[in-house]
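Q: Is it fine to ask for two folds in a single conversation?
A: Yes, each is treated on its own. Send the first.
Q: Here.
A: Result:
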Amino acid sequence: MSTGSVEVIYRGIFQKTLAKNICRGIVFAARKEGKIGIAFGRYGDSPERNGIPAKQFAVVSNTEDELQEYLSRYEPNNNDVTISCDDTLCKGVESWAWYGLQPINKLLAKNGTLLVVSTQSANKLIKIIHRKGAPYKLATVKAAASFSGLWVYKDDHTDVRLLGALAKVAPHIVSIDSILSAIKDQWKNDKKVASAKKAYDDASTSPVGAEQGSEEIPFSFDLPGWTKMEEGLVIRGQKSEQKNVAGWEGGYVPGRNETFKKFSTRTMRPAINFDTCTKCTLCWLNCPDTCFDISPDGFYDANMQACCGCGVCEAVCPVEDCITMVNEEAFEDNNSQWEMWRKDKKKYAVWLTEKISNKPARSHGFHHVGQYAEEIANES
């Protein structure tokens, strides 16, 4: 069987149009070669929500029988290519109460290719991607995250650039000639054809060893056998008892589900200046995800495992520049900022200044028609 499959991981709603165009483009290109294909979406949970990791797939086969045989599995688990439309998703994908945090490369086949939209180097990306335990390749399309979503379409050619790069890293699925022909037919835009061809020419891959990547152990679970199944649907509640954390006597850390990590939906995170904090409690009271821990000395430390990066804390903080939302790509861990500040306040001040002053431009998504054009004008 010569079936090939592509998994596209994107941020729900914000990048829905982008993911759809990529998968549809793959199928249209495959038809140019006499192949048969199908494109379909599958979300972490339903309905699809703003920023939450979601997936679409494209599967291509030589014959309909081969295609049906492949699709008889509920989910492809040996994709030739996994496309990440946002490099911050490389830290792991949590579909919110579905499978727990999973590696971005979990469903990638051995020696497959992880294709990422990013301005970062391959070496930097590898540091935040979970170890796969098998060799694979990493390729990048040099671009900022494209939030081409349900309401506002960002016409920056990211869709066709990814299609061009796909033809380079997986020519057995679709050739560049078929990709260019399909783009011309579907988009009727010569500039998009040129963008796809340039991405094909520029695409390069880096080998990633089986033991390269983040040492973090991803969430895993065992499905219960039939003898352990209970009657009806049973969902065990999370105990909401206060946790005892060494060094935090007098502080408060709310009970949290250890397997429920919301940070994968985060594109930006709060950076906190404890030296100017007045302990007014507003960030703690208004955080919709209860991600602030109360330190023993009364400060509020954002738990980066629980923070989804919504920016409410920055919006309600009455002290100028006390809380600043910073691009997630500027960070490589989820360590406590309060612990860093308490340990060495001068060093923390330098760290904070660097994060804020050197932060790459980022937004939570597009809010109105014309915003993309405004950003391009401001950058030029």
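Q: Second one now.
A: Result:
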Amino acid sequence: MQCGPREIVTPFRPIPLEVPEGMKPNEFFNSTENLNDLVHNNGLLLNPENLLLYRKALGHSTEFDTSIIYNTSQTILNPLGRPVRRTQVPEHVRHVWNRMNQVIIDYMLEQYPDPQQHLVLAGEASLDATWPLTSPGVPSIRMLHNHFIVFPMDELRNAQLAEPNNPNLTDGGQHSLFEKHMHGVYREFICKALHLEVLRPVSDDSARIDLTGYPQGLPSWEVPGGAAALQDVRFWHEYDLVLKGFLDFYRTFFSQVSSRNAPMLPDLYFPAPVESVLLFDNDFLKTAKMVRDRCIKDPAYANAIRWQPAFKQLIYRNEQGKLIVTISQNSIGNAITELLGVVVKRVPDAAAYEQREPQLIERLLEVRRRLIEADLGEGIATEYWPA
């Protein structure tokens, strides 16, 4: 079978949600009113930490698809002031969130034990507050939320190949700025900055999904011990360290793009490796110059720069059954699944969605039951399910 990214078709039921006259959709989606709709029509569980588990109405998969959002819509009215990455979340909230992640991932691996039959993934993307509010390509909620998704491998095998030059498939390999121009220094910095005991670095081949050939060229770590390791709080500390290392690299790079020979940022997680590796590396600094020079001459290119850290971080299982952690620079337009070479084409088809809906909701309610049992929240009633 030919290896390559797949484009999978996923039906959805159109949402009867009216955007007020004079508002752009992405402006409305960031409103408290939209979050109220999300809670009342698709909400599954809510806890005192304002973590909301909900059914993805515009989902990636009808097999299993849910998200947790840190719903700060009523406590932080300024969309640009809301947390958009885990490092901005209060410690007690992050602790509860990690426990919720562990319970849901454990359920997915238990429900779908055969890596040849199902692709299992979980993670988040900082895809919201890194864009201007007026950007037309941001039909999303400007709050931190993560995803839990399962794809049947047979559907992926039977799906048509996606175009390799699809603008959404730009996270790794030849497309990524980090990978193309700073591959060596990126890895040197990550190795020197992070002192990991649970996660183990793996090669591109070991991390890759055989069917799609993705991820491409990204730093990746195996989770020895599989699902059991996710019950160890050290795993979640190291999962955050991976993000912190990425954030230091990203922020330092774009500070140099913004201002030639900019001083070292004052609030770095790993200042010593930033100083000794990044700010004394010719590839790193000449790439910053290349981007800066183009920004000065090309307004469209400059407007597309995401000056705040934009990333996707995933835990997924490949066909060999290995649990892998990876992180990537996030490009404009990317969905989280495309990091693994899965392009989702959503089509409005209420009848097709409703055929699959009972089984999907049955699985979501079982996950909710386990979360309630673990004292991680209380159920929400909608017209589709009881509390």
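Q: Anything structural to flag on that second result?
A: Two points. The longest strand covers residues 118-125. The domain at 1-162+334-387 is CATH 3.30.428 (HIT family, subunit A).
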